[in-house]
């Protein structure tokens, strides 16, 4: 399953028994490949010429020209959607200032203290959740301003653990 977003619009694409589903409904148009980056679509008696203009290396952002209109889209795959459901989709954006608990759990170890300088990837703490130990790491460089938990604390999902 994939979720595609373009501006305010968003829809899910999945495949079931070889059929393309859009938001759970069978696709009722005609789609054909012209070349590696060019496609033709007919839907509701309208014709669309689609050209892939560019995409990022991760394959998450695409720029299309559809009938001479430029549209930028973002793509989320199964893993992105799972992280989103678990509340872990914004960790990299928010971690520069704060580290949040991605899920309820128990703090097994805190590996930083106020004033510590950390680089991206530095282990910050260990959170036990669902019988698994999760090493929470720094998403960027920074200096620890405040540690709000200590070993043995129970935490709730999205609780602030460390501030930078």
Automatic annotation (TrEMBL):
InterPro entries: Biotin_BS, Biotin_Carboxyl_Carrier/Decarb, Biotin_lipoyl, Single_hybrid_motif
Origin superkingdom: Bacteria
Keyword Acetylation: no
Residue span(s) of domain Lipoyl-binding: 90-164
Keywords for this protein: Biotin
Membrane-crossing residue ranges in chain numbering: none
Signal peptide: none
Record-given protein name: Acetyl-CoA carboxylase biotin carboxyl carrier protein subunit
Native source species: Fulvivirga sedimenti
